Prior knowledge:
Layout: H1 5-19, H2 22-44, H3 64-125, H4 130-145, E1 149-155, E2 161-168, H5 172-175, E3 180-181, H6 186-192, E4 197-199, H7 211-217, E5 221-228, E6 233-241, H8 249-301, H9 310-341, E7 349-351, H10 353-371, E8 374-379, E9 385-388, H11 390-406, E10 413-421, E11 424-431, H12 452-457, H13 465-476, E12 479-484, E13 490-499
Parallel strand pairs: 8-10
Antiparallel strand pairs: 1-2, 1-6, 2-3, 4-5, 5-6, 7-9, 9-13, 10-11, 11-13, 12-13
Helix pairs in contact: 1-2, 1-3, 2-3, 3-4, 3-8, 4-8, 8-9, 9-13, 10-11, 11-13
Amino acid sequence: xxxxLLVFAIFHIILAGILLSPVSTYLYAGVVLLAAxxxxxxxxxxxxxxxxxxxxxxxxxxxxxxAVAFSYLTFAVTILxxxxxxxxxxxxxxxxxxxxxxxxxxxxxxxxxxVALYEMVKDIDRYSGLKELLDSATRQTARLMGVKACSIKxxxxxKKHLQFASTYGLSEDYVSKGxxxxxxxxxxxxxxxxxxxxxGRIGEEDHFQFPENxxxxxxxxxxCLPLRGNNMxxxxxxxxxxxxxxxxxxxxxFFRLMSDLIGIAVERVKWDLTKSWxxxxxxxxxxxxxxxxxxMVKLVRKGYLGPVNEEQDGTLERxxxxxxxxxxxxxxxxxxxxxxxxxxxxxxxxxAPEEVLGTLAPLFESQAKQKGIGITFEIHKPVMQVTANExxxxxxxxxLISNAIKYTPKGGDVRVILGMEDGSVxxxxxxTGIGIPEKDLPRLFTEFFRTAExxxxxxxxxxxxxxxxxxxxxxxxxxxxxxxxxxxGTHFKCLIPGVTPMS
Length: 503
C-alpha cells in the first residue's frame, strides 16, 4: 500500500469520471479496489513476494493487520469519494449543459417567432382594406403556427351568428356552409365568452355544428381563441392541424398574442372605414349647398342684384376665396374617402407612369409659367409599368407636383424626374421653395397638418394632399422619402415596385 502507483490510480479514477459514464467509472473503481485488496491480502499473509507494508517500520508488529486494513479502507474511501464527486459534478454539468442547450433552442424558437410576428404586424399594418388585412392575417398565422389551415369568423351586427371572413388552407366546401349560429354551436359560444378551445384529437363526440365536414376536411386538432379589439369581441380566430397534436401553453400564449394584435388591427381598419364613410357622406352633403353659395356670391359681385361698391366687392372676394378653399377641402375629403373605401374593391392593373406624366406635364408647365417659376420634366427611359390604375398615378403625381409649385416663390425652380432604381420606378419632385422644418417632418403625413411656414406663404390649403399620396403608395406597395430644410426647398422621392407587362 506504499506504492506511488496508488496515487496514479486515484488520478485514473478522476479521468474515468470525466471521460466515462458513471456506471463505467464505478466499475473501474471496483476493479482498482479489487486489485488493491488482493495486494493487501498478500501483504497481510506475509507472502514472500509482497513489499514491506506501510506503517510496518513505525508501528509494532502486533498492529500489523490493523494498519494494513486501515490503509486499505482509507484508500477505498478516497477512491469511492473521488468517483462519487467526479461523476456527480459531471452529471450536474451535463444536466446544466442540457438545460442551457434547451433554453438556447427555446430562445432561438421564440426569437424566430417574434421576428416573424414583427414582420406579420408590419405586413398587416399597411392594409387599409378589411378583406386584404384578414387574408394576410390567416396566411401569416398558418405559416407561423405550422398548421394546415387558419380561419377568422366575424360576428354579425346582432351578435348571434358567425360568418367566415377569411380562410387559408380550407376547402370551398368547408367554408360554403354559410353562417354559424351561436345557439347551435356550443363550442363557438364558449369561445365568444372568452374561453379558449383547445383539442389535440378531434373525435365524433365533440360538439361541432357540422362534424362530418370537420372529418372530411382532414382536421385532427384545433386551437380557437376569441378575436378581440380594444372594447369588444369581434369574432373567432382558429388554427387547424392535420395531425393529432396537443397544443401546449406556449402555443396558446403565442396564438393569443397574434389574435390580440390582429383584433386591434381589424378594429382600426373598421374604424377607419367608418370614419371615411362618415367624412365622405358629410362632404358630399355639403358640396351642393356650398356650390350654391359660391354661385350666389359671384352673382352679387357681378352686380346682378344691384350695384356693389369697392369695399363690398373686396369683402365678397374674400368670401369667394374662402368658399373655394372649403370646396377644395371637400373635394380632397371625397377623394380620400373614395380611396379608403374602394381599397380592395378596385382592380389594379399594369399602368405606364410615363404616359400619365406626359399628359399632366403641359398642365403644370402652364401653372408654373403663370406663377413665374421654372419647371423641368425628365423621363429616363425605359420605365417599367406599375400595378395601379390611371387615377391613382394621376393623383400621386398631381399632389406632389402641385404642392411643389404652390410652395415655391416666384423665381424658383421645380424639377420632376421619372426613372428606375433597383427594379422600382423612381418618381422625384424637387423644389427651391420654403422647405419644411425638421421638427415637422414626422407629422407631414398627418391629416389636416400644415406647417406654419406653409400657412404663412399660402393661406389656402387642406392638409390632405400628402395623406392621399401616402395612402396611394401604401396601396401600391411603394415607399416615400422626404428630405427638406426650412428655407432650402424640399425633395420627395417615391419608389414603386415595377412590373413587367405580360406579352
